[in-house]
Amino acid sequence: MIAQLAIAAAIAYGLTRLNGMAPAPAILCAAIVLLAVRMSITANNFRLAWRFRSETPGHCRLTAFQACRLYLNEFRSTMLSSSWTLPFHAFAGHTALQSRGLPVLLIHGYGCNSGYWHSMSRKLRDAGITHHAVSLEPIFGDIDSFVPSVHEAVERLRQESGSQKVILLAHSMGGLVARAYLNVHGDDRIARVITLGTPHHGTGLADFGMGDNSEQMRWIASDRGGTPSAWLQELAAREDHRRYALFVSIYSHHDNIIAPQTSSELPGARNIDLHGIGHVALGLNPRVQKIVIDEIFAAGQPDE
């Protein structure tokens, strides 16, 4: 956010000092340039995702109008998250006065913090659901290194809510953090794990990311289709696959970050496939939010 503002200020300053442009038009031009760059980044993500895409079912194919709406909604969600909720709306949690359903721990994805959940949190509040959120650091750290923070947050949520079990709601990389947590601490404390756009088998776009966590999320393309990273293979090898029955994996056939998109399918889990929704937009989409809340209520009531 600071870098974007600095670049925009530099452009506006250059237009006023070097070209003699009035301040108002210079600021407008700088904002247009910044928006154009951000739009090109979102467009490039869709282009890269197309390279690694899985086959889209016939009933999920989009018209030109629907494709434009998909792009604009994802761009809006990206701008809203990166320029508003992530820098200004990180939060620890909300305790409902008359809590309904089990308490929920929100686990964000790659390059984010708890502010990603700002929109989802409002819906959970309206539904009377107690929820906490965790911000994972360091931002480019090893996924296994996030497990202690999640464990601490789970225990705090259980203690403050009085519930023996909680639900994990995770976006993107957060779903892999949840799986790593279950490998270490088991599932006695967890009633359900709901993942949104999680690369359970890796994503080709992780090749373009930074950090140990990006490396761990790689999907390595080959003539035979592709294979998950060594870390993902080791994670699956350590897991009791019967535990996947705890999972509900919600994903979009038009995810612009997780590709192949069917990487989000987890064998033995309840896999809910959607279409016409981008990666960042998954946590902000009203349809997804309704599905999430329905799944939370279906998981059971708090312990007496």
Strand-residue proportion: 5-15%
Distance between the termini: 45 Å
The CATH H-level homologous superfamily of the largest domain: Alpha/Beta hydrolase fold, catalytic domain
Principal-axes geometry comes out as globular
CATH level 1 class label of the largest domain: Alpha Beta
Number of strands: 9
Question: In the residues, how many domains can be counted?
Answer: 2
Cα-based radius of gyration, to the nearest Å: 20 Å
CATH topology of the largest domain: Rossmann fold
Q: Treating each run of at least 4 consecutive H or I residues as one helix, how many helices?
A: 9
Q: Could you give the order of the helices and strands?
A: HHHEEHEHEHEHEEHEEH
**What level of helicity do the residues show?**
40-55%
- Structural class assignment: alpha/beta
In round numbers, the mean pLDDT is: 95
Task: Quickly give the CATH architecture of the largest domain.
Answer: 3-Layer(aba) Sandwich
**Biggest pleated-sheet summary:** 7 strands, mixed
Low-pLDDT runs of 5+ residues are none
Strand order of the largest sheet: 1-3-2-4-5-8-9
